[in-house]
Amino acid sequence: MQTAAAPVAVFPRLALVAAAIVIALTLGGVGIARWSGFDGRQQDAQTVAQRALFFKDQPGGSIAIVDAHSGATLDTVHGEQGFLRGTLRAVVRERKLRGLVSPNDDRPLQLISRADGRLTLLDPATGSRLDLESFGSTNAAVFARWLPQGVKQ
Questions:
Q1: Pairing with 78, which of 24, 34, 87, 110 sits 20 to 30 Å away (CA)?
Q2: Any long-range contacts for 47-50 (C-beta under 8 Å, 24+ apart)?
Q3: Band of the pLDDT at 102, cuts 50, 70, 90?
């Protein structure tokens, strides 16, 4: 006695062809953009204000924010400060990956306010940058308070 073969589900051929075309066009477009030298990054607006800052760990877990030019302590933050601490950990991790961390590190971070309202934290030691407004206005405000007086974000 013969048994009947189980029916085989067939995926629509047209859907496979359409997916292949979409993938090919996407890869082709990316290839052409890279080959032509296209840079999709937005140009930075004019700098409105800039301040070089040190973030120094203090006994008890607080962080002192120090103006790199005057040496004045602008603020001392206590408590969790999740966004601030997370941002600083990312900067330190990048410096460690490049072998740039030392106990007497004297390279400040640059806090830059731009004419279009953007706020950037730049690490000149590594060339890395964090566009702080990308994390929301509340998180950007954590850093904006240390801009020179008279600059609004």
A1: 110
A2: 47/112, 47/113, 47/114, 47/115, 48/113, 48/114, 48/115, 48/151, 49/112, 49/113, 49/147, 49/148, 49/151, 50/110, 50/111, 50/112, 50/113
A3: low
The secondary element (H helix, E strand) that includes residue 11 is: none
pLDDT tens track for 36-85: 887 777 777 888 989 999 998 888 888 999 999 999 999 998 887 889 98
Closest CA to 119 of 109, 138, 133: 133
Residue spans of the domains in the chain: they are 12-41, 47-144
